[in-house]
Amino acid sequence: MPQPHTRDPYAGWRELTLRGMILGALITVVFTASNVYLGLKVGLTFATSIPAAVISMAVLKFFKGSNILENNMVQTQASAAGTLSTIIFVLPGLLMAGYWNGFPFWQTTLLCVSGGILGVIFTVPLRYAMVVKSSLPYPEGVAAAEILKVGSGEHEDAEQGQSCDSGVREILSGGLLAGLMSFLSGGLRVISDSASYWFKAGNAIFQLPMGFSLALLGAGYLVGLTGGIAILVGIFIAWGGAVPYFSNIIPQPSDMDMTAFAMQLWKEKVRFIGAGTIGIAAVWTLIMLAKPMAEGMRLSFGTFSGSGSASAERTEQDLSPKSMILIVLGMMLLLGFSFYHFIAAAQMSAGIAWTLVVVCTLLTSVIGFLVAAACGYMAGLVGSSASPISGIGIVSIVVISLVLLAVGESSGLFSDEGNRQFMLALTLFCGSAVICVASISNDNLQDLKTGYLVKATPRLQQIALIIGCVAGAIVVSPVLELLYEAYGFTGAMPRAGMDASQALAAPQATLMTTITQGIFAHNLQWNYIFTGVGIGVALIIVDFILKKSSGNRLALPVLAVGMGIYLPPSINMPIVVGAFLAAWLKSRIRTRSGDTENSLKRADRTGTLFAAGLIVGESLIGVAMAFVIAVSVTNGGSDAPLALGLKNWDTAASWLGLAGFLLGMTVFARRILKAAR
User: Fold this and answer.
1) Which phi and psi (to 5°) does residue 7 adopt?
2) Is there a contact between 246 and 266 (Cβ–Cβ < 8 Å)?
3) What is the dihedral angle through the alpha carbons of 387, 388, 389, 394, rounded to the nearest 10 degrees?
4) Is residue 86 within 8 Å of residue 332, measured between CB atoms?
């Protein structure tokens, strides 16, 4: 390894290497598959930077000349690829709308590649203002940098047993534990994945829900107490207020039991209230980010026009303005080709078809450019995982729907009902591209912050981000196809007679599709959406008061409240439990530790990696089971080929599920407390 230079200790060190790119691609496959599964099941994805960094350090240490900069490039590539999985927030809507019956590989891949790379380029001009000169905390970016420093022996905590080997052990332990639970529930089906207690007070129906997913327990640990409380508020609004209210004033059908009736009310009415709350939270976020968005756009235009000067310092070199302009134009052409291929399948005149190609390409590019600064700023403020990509997706879908509705009505397209369905599908296809731009923008500045802290070369990092987008895009379509064929989605099943209870909820895609269908059919249930907007406005005021009175120590994230209303309660409750578990563990460590700061750092590192392991383990078992189911079905077998089919086992399965969840929670807590000693 070269001798360090006096000014630049890493001058001459290898960063973007072939072995690193291959390792990054392999990690990409694992984390993209995990995020696609988790996102379709519960509407959440997890940040992959930290586990990718740990795995990279553990593997590359066996190779001569590996260093912190090379490991940083691997995690940069893998995190960008994992982030692309958020396309599942919209794209499955094409199946729910009845337009697609699968995920065409080239259409899906080109959409991900072009949208993702645009997201990379749109955030490059923001790096200096938002990373180098900004006081934004970038929680995940800073944490990833700390992990890289510890693993390389370049941090003061490196002598305290926090090696990359121990990090891999935490990921593997969490993965094995959650994977076993997932196999018992989703494979053998001998334990339940959720249980609820239902009761009535008069005609009002109430539910006390619980879910037993260890992956969601880990997600809750990462979300933290503030987010957990907000989700709990959302659950209470839905199941302690809205559902009891509607069930009290609407007569229960004689042929429907209490549980089915309550779930129908929640799906047809209460979820739209949640959608309204999520939507106003997204709009409020954009309003609050108006100033940094304007600054980001000013910097972007300045860089693209060539007014920025290239620095001679390695650690300050970005992609050149000329390169960025060429890449943007190239990706816009690729986007245009994707839209042309999509639109060519419809029966319409060449003039209208080319108009739609141009409109959709411009919509994706302009909306993507506008949200890039907002997403980057928000990720710097609260982290990539907590940034409201879903809300931005909703706002984008509404804008795209209204624009394409105007185009369709002015050109007479809607005289044919088939064209109306096509325009709905085109809206979702265009919205998927915007989500790619937004999600990558959301992730990139986090990675660039990590690179800034470990003294990486920004230009090489930006190239790694582009490579990550391409690698992730190749994986998305096959994984989506596999999961769809094995489980189906809510409202879109590939075969008759499938078990609807095993279908993946794809909550954001369901919401986006419902909103788009309502706009195009002029029958969107605006009364419930406006009720949600009203609740959201009230919560925004509460959040403002809490922050003002507590000096920003207390908050009530409105988007999380909306998700609490919108998502199934059996999904929300493990997240809440994980959030409260994290708070309790931190409190206990503070009261019993003499060296509180270092103890909390060690505990947080262990907890983060173990939680990532829980998420990856359950998700990979879900993907593996999807493969087993797909093989079984294609050979004329069952949708549950490994299920034991025990008779009268429901009650026992619920108790065993609860016992397994409590055992997993205990193991999780003990490992964190042990690390804090």
Assistant:
1) -85, -40
2) no
3) -170
4) no
Of the ranges 9-23, 89-103, 234-248, the best mean pLDDT one: 234-248
DSSP 317: P
User: HSE (CB half, 13 Å, CA atoms) of 614?
Assistant: 26
With 0-12 / 13-18 / 19 or more C-beta atoms within 10 angstroms meaning exposed / middle / buried, residue 299 is: buried
Say whether 188 sits in a helix, a strand or coil: coil
Sign of CA dihedral 382, 384, 390, 392: positive
Region of residue 347 (left: phi > 0; alpha: psi -120 to 50; beta: else): beta
Could you report the per-residue pLDDT of 117-172, keeping only the tens digit for each? 998 998 887 787 778 776 667 767 777 787 787 766 654 444 444 555 667 788 88
Spatial separation of the C-alpha atoms in residues 468 and 596, rounded to whole Å: 38
**What is the C-alpha R_g of the chain?**
24
Each residue of 182-219: pLDDT tens digit? 899 888 889 998 888 899 888 899 999 898 989 889 88
Distance of CA 154 to the CA centre of its chain: 31
Spatial neighbors of 322 by CB under 8 A, at least 6 apart, are 306
pLDDT at 156: 46
Contacts of 428 (CB under 8 A, 6+ apart): 90, 91, 93, 94, 97, 99, 397, 512, 513, 516
The model carries a pTM of: 0.77
With vertex at residue 254, the alpha carbon angle to CA 250 and CA 256, rounded to the nearest 5 degrees, is 85
Q: List the one residue out of 442, 540, 469 whose CA is nearest residue 141.
A: 442
112, two tokens: 């991900």
* Residue 204: its H or E element: strand 204-211
Residue 232: exposure state from Cβ atoms within 10 A (0-12, 13-18, ≥19): buried
Residue 211's DSSP bridge partners are 194
- From residue 137, how far is each of 285, 377, 446 by CA, in Å? 18, 10, 10
| Helix (H) or strand (E) run with residue 640 in it | none
Terminal alpha carbon distance of the chain: 36
Helical H runs in 454-568?
Answer: 458-487, 507-521, 526-550, 558-566
C-alpha 391/C-alpha 402 separation (Å) is: 17
